[in-house]
Amino acid sequence: MGRVLLISANTEKRPPVFPLGLSYIHASLVASGWEAGMLDMTQLEYTREAVTNYLNAYAPDYIGLSIRNLDNCCMQYPRSFVDQVCLMVDWVREWNSRAGIILGGAGFSLLPRQWLQETGADYGIVGDGCDSIVELLSQLEAGQVPSAVSGLMFRTRAGEWNYWSPYAPEQLDQEYFPSRSGFLHSYDVDRRVRHNVLTKRGCALSCTYCAYPSLEGRAVRLRSPKGVADEIEQMVVQYDIGSFDFVDSVFNYPLEHAEEICRELIGRTLPLSWGCFLNPRFFTAEFAGLLRQAGCTEVEFGIDSGSDICLRSFKKNFRQAEIRTVVQLCRDQALDFSFCLLIGGPEETPETLHETLELMEELAVQRIFGLFGIRILPSTDMYSYAGSPEPDELLHPKFFMSPKLSLEQANSICAPYRERNPDWMFI
């Protein structure tokens, strides 16, 4: 068997995030008998010399390059990640033109053909890659032309595209947990990598801008609550990791599944401090209490807006009344919470934005993170609403902003609220 180096191309350090998908791939390879290493590009200078020196030291036969995001998703200060990924591929090619380069990750899976064309990488895997990477490498080691690998895409020497649709495995409980030993570093005395845990894949909700259903499927596939708790116990006992986030698109859907995970954690009596992303529709007094008992210290609600007009346009399954309710329930349990806003959706106007911000002040919400504009992604309602731009255009930052509200207007409206509320951030 050859040697594999998995590279997390992400360089964002605010906050430094654990590359969960890549760690699953690493664990799958190791469990299948492959020698695999991991390189976190937040820990290495992003230069040809530094990367070449690392490649010389490790000497891999195959490179797996994980692309987490297309860009920074910021309309005001857009920054594409395409060029830095292309540079990485070029540096690998210069080091050893025979090393096979395989792309993957959520960012890649959104626009796989465009990424392969732009970078010139050999192969790409769309969607869940744990089994696919093992099968692909096994075929390559046997000297075969790869075929019938779930999610595999590549261009033949004749210029034809081969693609096998990804299979979404229903069984998410594996004999292995994500590899974490390569990501225990600190950036400074007080700031370690923020680790994360996944309890499910797939999303049955219908938010107009969201690509999760396209990336993971609309069928929600659940890990067992016991398996989730076992992984967290391993994190604490083996790696001293008690602080983490659940990174499901919505932790509390299905609600019963989240409740059972909390009960499992309560029974383990582990020293934990964790956060999660929640939907107001599936939030009850009992669940708030379970969160608190299970070690949850902060929750984030992706409400997007406080205006029912905008909530309907986003196809949200809750309204302003539920937002008011979750604020009270969190305060009853002394549970820290924050709201995420998306400013400039299809029905946004100066009036709806004022309505949202007035509601936030009325409810005395301490922390808000607001994004101007909606990143247009393929296979979403927003993509159609924005006129179905060519997929090639979407590899680089492309945003929608309500025709009834300019970016300048939105900034001007938010400015006095930001001054009165120092923990409200708008970018």
TrEMBL record:
<dbReference type="InterPro" id="IPR006158">
    <property type="entry name" value="Cobalamin-bd"/>
</dbReference>
<dbReference type="InterPro" id="IPR023404">
    <property type="entry name" value="rSAM_horseshoe"/>
</dbReference>
<keyword id="KW-0408">Iron</keyword>
<keyword id="KW-0949">S-adenosyl-L-methionine</keyword>
<keyword id="KW-0411">Iron-sulfur</keyword>
<dbReference type="Pfam" id="PF02310">
    <property type="entry name" value="B12-binding"/>
</dbReference>
<feature type="domain" description="B12-binding">
    <location>
        <begin position="1"/>
        <end position="147"/>
    </location>
</feature>
<dbReference type="InterPro" id="IPR051198">
    <property type="entry name" value="BchE-like"/>
</dbReference>
<dbReference type="InterPro" id="IPR006638">
    <property type="entry name" value="Elp3/MiaA/NifB-like_rSAM"/>
</dbReference>
<protein>
    <submittedName>
        <fullName>Radical SAM superfamily enzyme YgiQ (UPF0313 family)</fullName>
    </submittedName>
</protein>
<dbReference type="InterPro" id="IPR007197">
    <property type="entry name" value="rSAM"/>
</dbReference>
<keyword id="KW-0479">Metal-binding</keyword>
<dbReference type="Pfam" id="PF04055">
    <property type="entry name" value="Radical_SAM"/>
</dbReference>
<dbReference type="InterPro" id="IPR034466">
    <property type="entry name" value="Methyltransferase_Class_B"/>
</dbReference>
<dbReference type="InterPro" id="IPR058240">
    <property type="entry name" value="rSAM_sf"/>
</dbReference>
<feature type="domain" description="Radical SAM core">
    <location>
        <begin position="189"/>
        <end position="423"/>
    </location>
</feature>
